Amino acid sequence: MDRIIDIVMAVSALVISVSFHEAAHAYAAWRMGDPTAKLMGRITLNPIKHLDPVGSVALPVILSLMGLPAFGWAKPVRVNPANFRELRKGDIIVSLAGVMANLGLAIVTGLFLRLLFLSVDGRQTFSALQLIWRMLPFFITFIYLNLILFVFNLIPVPPLDGGRVVSALFPHSYQAVARHFQAASLALLIILMVTGSLDSFISAVVRPLFIVITGPDVLNAFIQMRYGMG
Question: pTM of the prediction?
Answer without folding.
Answer: 0.86
